[in-house]
Amino acid sequence: MIVEIGHYALVLALAVALINSVLPVIGARRNDAGMMELATTGAYALFVLVLLSFLSLVWAYEASDFSVKNVWENSHSAMPAIFRFSAVWGNHEGSMMLWLLILTFFSALVALFGRNLPESLKANALAVQSWMGVAFALFILLTSNPFIRLSPVPAEGEDLNPILQDVGLAIHPPLLYLGYVGFSVSFSFAIAALLDGRLDAAWARWVRPWTLAAWTFLTAGIAMGSYWAYYELGWGGWWFWDPVENASLMPWLAGTALLHSALVMEKREALKIWTVLLSIVTFSLSLLGTFLVRSGVLTSVHSFTTDPTRGVFILGILMLFIGGAFALFAWRAPLLKAGGLFAPISREGSLVLNNLILTVSMGSVLIGTLYPLVLETLTGEKISVGAPFFNLTFGLLMVPLLIAVPFGPLLAWKRGDLLGALQRLYVAAGLALVAGLVFFYAKNGGPVLAVLGLAAGFFLVFGALADLWYRAGFGKVSVSTGWKRLTGLPRSAFGTALGHAGLGITVLGIVAVTTFETENVVEMTQGQTVQAGGFAVKFDGMRATKGPNFTEEQGHFSISRDGVQVADTWSSKRLYTARRMPTTEAGIVTFGTSQLYISLGDPMSNGGIVVRIWWKPYVLLIWGGALVMMAGGFVSLSDRRLRVGAPARRAKPVKAYAAEAAE
Amino acid sequence: MTRKQKRLAVIAGGMSFILAAVLLIMFAFGQSVAYFYMPGDIAKANLTPGTRIRLGGLVAEGSVVRGEGSTVSFKVTDGNTEIPVSYTGILPDLFREGQGVVTEGRFAEGGPQFTADTVLAKHDENYMPKEVADRLKEQGLWQHTEEGKP
């Protein structure tokens, strides 16, 4: 019964979304306040209905109601409650429900926080959100309905794919979707502005917090997914350039560009057309990602069993929205007036450089991801474009950006002083180079290029600190005044510094782990010891255990340094009984930010076992940096929390104004 | 420099960055793209030894031999032709005889021996690498057992 209510709620949601797609737009045309007001109510109603529908599916999973086909296919009564919960979106149908839920969630937030928006802009934006709601509700109901019942009712479920039976599934998809789908808001605002034909700095001020929030979640989602793949798959890698990873990286790159160009638009009214275009492109890439993952044109961890009608349907949605958006853009964009002028060397100029590099490197990822698909469709030839391609192109293209980042915040708006910025940064650059060299020699060895990579990472961190240092005026004023000025800086200044420093930390982690990582593949027998990363790893033997829905062969390892045992760990191979599917559970021991990563291979005939042992120095910095970037996002968001949707700048205390002028 | 010249310089700079990126992408495609072959294609393909390719097919029944240390050798078959493959490392969890597999690596000088540095067998018990599945269907060797779903 509950499941039927959920099903019905989804149908109702489709009806509400249909109404909400049309009436507010007409209202905005006719300047009818009542019809425009409907968009707000509609957005709330839509969210409540979809939430109801989603919760009924959650209930079916928690109650292990195997008469629901979707539950039977993806759950098992022996699974712990938390996995039964996350299993809701561990399959195609459920993940589309999550997509729709988050879409309507963002619409409701826009309705809630957008009280000060111009009525027509808000009505149009919410209507655009509803168009997407219609498309995806239809998609779910017609091709991917999770509420279909089975008869006769099976006694037991088929279990969830064991790879997904992990807390990672509870965290990674919701975060990722909050990011992916969050960009729908800037998309809707862009379309609404094009429909309205009005675009000014205030528009950028409304859009930026949404973009920032989506970007922050997407950063978190990608980092979480990367760490999950790292510890769960047992291959010790943290990024595989898998098409699905690329699908999430592309909106991130475009979103990062958007974040920066919207800043120019907000402060200087320049780059208007470009910013609107980027809003469209960013969300189009989110849609493209959804298509790549959901249509089954790619094979990866993320493609569940698929049927072709779904692919065609999503391709239809994709073409409709992306094609429509670009057509509208081509038609309306020439009407928009270009804004403020600026010299090439200026804050704006540096942000243009940022946008150029980010979009071009995004393009390289896009080409590498789509080329095999296009080639196969056209010629039937099958090729694989893998890590070597992306490392070469994306890696090289990003280098100038890493060097340029610290300069940006030090340049003034309109006309900047590059020499002045250089003078302020040479200490940071020198320190970075020294730090890189010290790090390199302490680890003795590796390619010389690594010194430069490490120096680039340190430069980003020190550059971010230097920015704060000069803003506070340390060195020119007394320490106490400097401190006072530092604490008086707007939060967005700290957000910028954290974002840039976080990038630097991630770069450091990537360079360090690629350069200094060691890998041993050895055949070990009980009692044998292997050296890795300055530790002695001793294999103590195997034991067999049982989990709720799997059997497990565990190997015990004790780790000692200079003869003293410092840690021990279990590394195991599991066999999930319902699906007869084996998985590897790596044994991971953390020392500071470095990790020892032990995964088991096949047993040998002589009683030994093949063991793979990695020493991964500073590997945690990769995700630590992402955490710092996220923190930057949240700090910036908290700065403008009160301004979200506020069209007029409120009068500010003089002190804060002075700090902003110094920006 | 006048404003116009400055603007031209900026545009030229941007364009040359994009051009450099395009050249880099084309160069990288030439360098690092691996073509996919089934065992039967190898004889016709006229590969120079040392070219990096992907070789896909089924792991031939009874062909998996574990050698010294962690080196494993097996044969990849498409039903007619078999290619011997050697691989050092840990095989994926789902590597099994009779199952689909994609290996990536190079042929040794002057011999049919394929040395793989990557072996892919993906994350689902019914999983068949897409390239392999497509080709097996073409050749009429497709025997995927449909799960007994009501």
UniProtKB/TrEMBL annotation, chain A:
> Per its UniProt record, what Pfam families does this chain match?
CcmF_C, Cytochrom_C_asm
Q: Which GO terms describe its biological process?
A: cytochrome complex assembly
Name the principal localization, coarsely classed.
membrane
Q: Any idea where the Cytochrome c-type biogenesis protein CcmF C-terminal domain is?
A: 315-640
Regarding the membrane, this protein is recorded as: Multi-pass membrane protein
Record family assignment: Belongs to the CcmF/CycK/Ccl1/NrfE/CcsA family.
What function does this protein fulfil?
Answer: Required for the biogenesis of c-type cytochromes. Possible subunit of a heme lyase.
GO terms assigned for molecular function: heme binding; heme transmembrane transporter activity
Cite the Cytochrome c assembly protein domain residue spans from the record. Answer: 89-295
Q: Which domain of life is it from?
A: Bacteria
Spans through the membrane: 6-26, 38-61, 96-114, 126-148, 175-195, 207-229, 273-292, 312-331, 352-374, 394-413, 425-442, 448-472, 493-516, 618-637
Q: Which InterPro entries match?
A: CcmF_C (IPR032523), Cyt_c_assembly (IPR002541), Cyt_c_biogenesis (IPR003567), Cyt_c_biogenesis_CcmF (IPR003568)
Q: Which UniProt keywords apply?
A: Cell inner membrane, Cell membrane, Cytochrome c-type biogenesis, Membrane, Transmembrane, Transmembrane helix
Could you identify this protein by its name?
Cytochrome c-type biogenesis protein CcmF
Automatic annotation (TrEMBL), chain B:
Q: How does it sit in the membrane?
A: Single-pass type II membrane protein
Major subcellular location class: membrane
Q: Which residues cross the membrane?
A: 7-29
User: Where does the signal sequence lie?
Assistant: none
Any idea which UniProt keywords this protein has?
Answer: Cell membrane, Cytochrome c-type biogenesis, Heme, Iron, Membrane, Metal-binding, Signal-anchor, Transmembrane, Transmembrane helix
Please list the GO terms describing molecular function.
heme binding; metal ion binding
For biological process, the GO terms are: cytochrome complex assembly; protein-heme linkage
Q: Which Gene3D superfamilies match?
A: Nucleic acid-binding proteins
Q: Which residues lie on this side of the membrane: Extracellular?
A: 29-150
For this protein, the record's InterPro entries field holds: CcmE, CcmE-like_sf, NA-bd_OB-fold
Please indicate the ranges of residues that lie on the Cytoplasmic side.
Answer: 1-7
Positions with a binding annotation for heme: 123, 127
| Cellular localization per UniProt | Cell inner membrane; Cell membrane
Q: Name one Pfam family in it.
A: CcmE
Cellular-component GO terms for this entry: plasma membrane
Family, as annotated: Belongs to the CcmE/CycJ family.
Q: What is the annotated role of this protein in its UniProt record?
A: Heme chaperone required for the biogenesis of c-type cytochromes. Transiently binds heme delivered by CcmC and transfers the heme to apo-cytochromes in a process facilitated by CcmF and CcmH.
Q: What is this protein called?
A: Cytochrome c-type biogenesis protein CcmE
Organism, scientific name:
Allorhizobium borbori
Gene name, per UniProt, is ccmE
